[in-house]
Amino acid sequence: MNWEVKKLSEIATTFEDGNWIESKDQSPNGIRLVQTGNVGKGKFKDRRDKARYISEETFKKLRCTEIYQGDILVSRLPDPVGRACILPETREKMITAVDCTIIRLNQNKVLPKWLLYYTTSDTYQNEIQKRVTGATRQRISRKNLGLIPVPVAPLSEQQRIVSILDRAFAAIAKAKANAEQNLQNAAALFESYLQGVFENENWEENTLKELTTKIGSGATPRGGQASYKAEGISLVRSMNVHDSKFREKNLAFIDEQQAKELNNVTLQENDVLLNITGASIARCCVIPKEYLPARVNQHVSIIRAKKELLDARFLNLLLTSKPYKDKLLFTGEQGATRQAITKAQIEAFRISIPKLKKQQTIVRQLDALRAETQKLEAVYQKKIDDLEELKKSILQKAFSGQLSESRIMAD
Description:
This protein is of the alpha+beta class and about 400 residues long.
């Protein structure tokens, strides 16, 4: 393979950072300021609604560098560090921010798409990671970015490979879009059936107070988060409660003494958990018994059903269905989102339910449907993951001189 390997800075006719533009330098209109948020992995994100500008006067005063269609912009900030895009035709004058590096190529030697495809490969990203700095906020300096080795094939070979990649990636994008749509459809199938079940108007209506033995939220133990332990008694927080799913990640623990202070919010098997404040308001799940003993903090309410009247799993499904979710989330004629759900509001919340045996039958039917839709979702998610792996494989072959149409068909 008669390819050269050159440093990134060596293949560019222009290799410089954008301009330092402070908030005071910006204007409501004028020359467009392209920021790191506009640089996607292999694509330009217009984000017109968040566009920033500077005036022509500021452009001259700060001696800004104009960027042009075909320039490659590389973000030196995450995520990921080193992602790049080609600037499209926008029909407006533009500059870029200081954390973006401008790469302008001699297109008689290196095609912009050749370099762009290379920046989406694992090989490139591994080279970037060798040179990033910063413990909490990773970044790469322009100097280190310029040291990244780039394989440079003869121009005719670049053209051939780029043409193959264009066709292959277009086909992969179409297949991925279909798989993603099928994934959404599988999830929507369950949600649609769930909504239909709880739109039934012929069941008996009761308040939750009439159907429960306990409704109430907890508190943060004295000492706050600083007093949490590495192990002990579970303290359930809103981040653990997701619709029909309990998430162990970030589960907090408290010791026996702290737990005693929260004895009045001790969780029992089959308790329904409802988030009552914040961005996750109205999320709902049943506590899995493996996390007991447990307590809840002030952002989560316990709803304990009367076992002879209400099946806890049925209540969980009901509260996560769209008709009842909307009733919990929104209030008033204007449909304003609630900032919090009070104990009194939960107690007064009215639900329609069938007899207990019918509830249990519905739960079994919904569990079976959920299992089937989850199988479908797993199939489509694997298809999406496989397509991403195929892209990586094709890129690896492309930049090691092993790419041909027949190899792609074999993959």
